[in-house]
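Re: [ENG-882] Designed sequences occasionally contain unexpected residues at chain ends

Forwarding the minimal case from QA. Structure tokens:
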């Protein structure tokens, strides 16, 4: 798995995107992710700096900080299925009712 990387992008318009890709068959997932990013960012070094995380188990893809133009370019790359903005959601567990005594398990 990739480690979190410091922000080295030059544009203030960049945002973290999740790039879903087909599972590579003859290549390690992270190598494929870096190669796909490098095709848009211009070098393997820039791709390694932009890569935030490689997803290899439940999903195939990676997260990276990209500008809107880079999102447009990477969306056209072979093997790229979808590019979506990363977002954080808060899950509600519903445990408040259990602790307040209003719900009981039988």
């Amino acid at each position: 798995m990739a480690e979190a990387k410091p922000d080295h992008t030059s544009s203030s318009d960049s945002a973290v995107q999740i790039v879903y890709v087909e599972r590579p068959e003859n290549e390690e997932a992270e190598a494929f992710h870096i190669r796909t990013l490098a095709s848009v960012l211009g070098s393997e070094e820039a791709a390694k700096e932009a890569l935030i995380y490689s997803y290899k188990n439940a999903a195939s893809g990676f997260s990276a900080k990209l500008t809107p133009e880079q999102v447009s370019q990477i969306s056209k790359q072979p093997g790229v299925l979808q590019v979506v903005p990363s977002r954080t959601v808060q899950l509600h567990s519903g445990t408040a009712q259990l602790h307040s005594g209003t719900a009981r398990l039988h």
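QA comment: On inspection the terminal residues look reasonable. The chain is about 30% helix and 25% strand. Proposing we downgrade this to a documentation issue.
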